[in-house]
Amino acid sequence: MRHWFSILFLLVAVQTNAQTTIFGKLKGVKNKPLPNVNVTLDDTYDGAVTHPDGSYQFTTTEKGPQKLVFAIKGYDTLNVPIVVDGKNIVLDTILKLGKDAQNEVVIISRSFTAGSGKNVVMSSRDIYTTGGANGDISQALRNLPGAQQLGEREGLAVRGGDVYETKQFIDGSMIAHPYYTAAPNIPSRTRYPPNLFKDVAFSTGGYSALYGQALSSALVLETIDIPEKSEANVSITPLFWGGGLQNVNQKKNFSWGMDYTYTNVALYFNLVKQIPDFFKMPQYHSVDGNFRFKTKNGGIVKYYGTFDYNQMGLRRQSIDSLDLKNAVYLKGTNVYQNISWKQPLPNNWKLNAVLSFSNNHNNIWQQLQDSSNQQFPITHSYWDTLNFSLKNNDLYAQGKVILEKKFFGQNALRFGGEYWYNRYNLTYNNYQHLLTDNYMAAFTETDIFLTRKLALQTGVRFENSSLLGIADFAPRASLAYKFAPKNQLTAAYGLFYQKPENMYLIWNEKLNMTQASHYILSYIYQGQKTMLRLEGYYKDYKNLVKTWPSYNNDGNGYAKGLELYWRDNNQTFKNIDYWVTYSYIDSKRNYLNFPTSMQPNFVANHTFNIVVKKYFSAINTGISPTFNFASGRPYYNLLLTNPTTPNYTISDQGKTKQYQMLNICAYHLMKIGKGFGVLYASMSNVLNRDNIFGYQYAVNGMNKMPIVPTAKRFYFVALFISWGVDRSQDTINGNL
Amino acid sequence: MKKVILSILCIASAATVCHAQSDKYEAAMKKNLAQFDTIQNPQSYLDLEASFERIANAEKTQWLPYYYAGLCETLYGFRDQKADKDAIGNKALELAGKADAIQKNDETQAVYYMAYIVQMLVDPQNRYMTYGANASKALAEGLQINPNNPRLYLLKGQGLLNTPEFVGGGKTVAKPILEKALALFETDKPQPLYPKWGKDQATQALEKCK
Fold this sequence. Notes:
The complex is a heterodimer. By secondary structure, chain A is mainly beta. In chain B, helix 3 packs parallel to helix 5 (about 105-120).
């Protein structure tokens, strides 16, 4: 009988709850308390989460040998064997950082950071909503430090470089003619709409070894992948009309689309008087098509092609004689095709290949005309340059392959090669010249994270041009150090080469590559919604092209400066996103026909921009005022006072007055029938300032005329409507 | 005879232990679920989540604790403005994935949806297209498994209320969906421990449609 009771007693005894308390403190890197660690008694329900001071406490009814597990993302999980035998247990310990913990330092690879989010670049939405940009990528980028305010020409002049020192790339392939052909002193627009791209990375110096042939900067554009939904769209404006459609298949692994835009400024020019007399109103036809499809294992193939035709003719008052006019007529066609393939491969390899083809053809004539618009016969030989006919054809065929291997901890190795075939044909009056070049480059680049806070990126690029008969070797390196949370210092060095422009090569094919060395030091503070960037640089130019007395590479120059960028996105002021930039530059160069080292006419020493964006969600409307300021730009009159002297002399020079431009744009989002509409309006030069970009001199140097915009203000109004098919609604709608 | 009674007692005690195990699971789950209604500050969601995770890791064959852990993570993400929403979303997606691996079901799709929405909120104007699309896909998948889940209709309706009219959202579109959600809540008879939240939210959301 006693046995029964003892057995029952045993069973009951086993069921009794005896509690043990387990507690302690956890520390991490540098003995700092570690909050949010999951402390678990393995295979049981018992445990706790550490408090901000690193402490934890919990009770358990388990008994015997157990395992205490400490786990938190970024740290190595720690297992501690313990024995629970009734006594309370205190366990303090230190956790070590895990091998796969995220690196803190970021290799910025010299891209400019202006959008929101982590991969700080400008999104297409940023471009459309920035005042003064009017949906043009380059115009929007001029609000960033490093770019000059040049109202009379298109292109980006960066840190003392001319506009052709900045090259643009789509999916890795160089775009030879990103802008429509323009008449002298009339800026033209970028061919490619911002909504074609998912990323716009603007590097103002020291860019990656994967790109070359640009002395100053690289604008790297990446096209969108397969769109989320099918869509038809229409654009209605006083300047251009267009429509297009984009079709995505059910599985979302194939899409194709087409767009057509017709531009004719006649209506607008009749409403807003322009200074030149346009005898042939600027007209553009532009057509583009695309298709994209996904390949196995996460790859994608993308094709984009465009064709456009443009023409314009205008007359302006001649500086050389009050009775005469300068007339210019141009027409041209442009074809651009680009097909790219991104493919992840086994073992963390990735392939990136792109093929592109472009052909740009221009037919231009210029004439000196009398008051009845008839050609005026040239009586003096030094007026030759005012009458000419010019035809050029620029053909590019390019291929590029990049292989990338990713190692643990974000370390990476990239290498590849590219080939450009260029055929440039020029006929100027009776002079004809053909240039052919086979350009080849091989490059490699590595990302090395020496510690979680210190990263090194090194690269080297080897280039060869068959036309010049020159090969070069261009190293690049940057070191980034995150010395405190949110604070990073980067030092970069790079050597950059660029073939002289074709217009110089036709006079001397055996010119050398021009070159620039960049030395850059930058500091970045990245807050959650704010960013501060301070950058100092020095550029040393060598082998610049001299055109007088002969074509050679004896030119040189320098550029040095300081830039500041501060962005605040909805932190200080509610619903207001703004940024402020200031750039100071000191740059001189001795090139072309300069008699000595001088500050070029595309460099203003001080540039200041402020961009403000505010969105009123209650009325679905946004506005963006922007203000740009630049100090005066130098202008020169270089004359050969005596044709036998070896040099031009500066017969007159000066600085223009300061450039001030206040622009504003507003956009309203609304429903139009079943579609989504955007009503957009913008006005430039709200302050109605008479800006002067420079001066043009008469051939005899006796008088000068200011270079001014074709009209003081630019007004723009547009209605964009898109109709989309959102398949995700189908399931819901079918079940209602 | 003694041996028979002893063996019966042993089996009985073994059965008690097993029953005690699932009793223990049910008791712990019920205790945690009760806490849901009394949470005051966002940090408590993280403690609750850790508790659900411990239950899930110990049990290994139950999807519900992983589901609730994911739910807590997303609720924390919606309430703490300073937190890293991308990391929170990823953690919630991971937990939902673990629940799905044990038993694929419609309720977990709600956690996927909320995780994508938390991440979208980092930068709604730029992320609406991609993260919004993933969120919609999650709800669509859930409804394919169970076209009568009231919580999925509730989330869709709430989403439409927060979407501007010109992209297809707004009160008029949300109303019928929220009404359907409320109707389904009336007839919803979830199994013990299964999610039953949402009726109050549906009523509140429907008020906003008037």
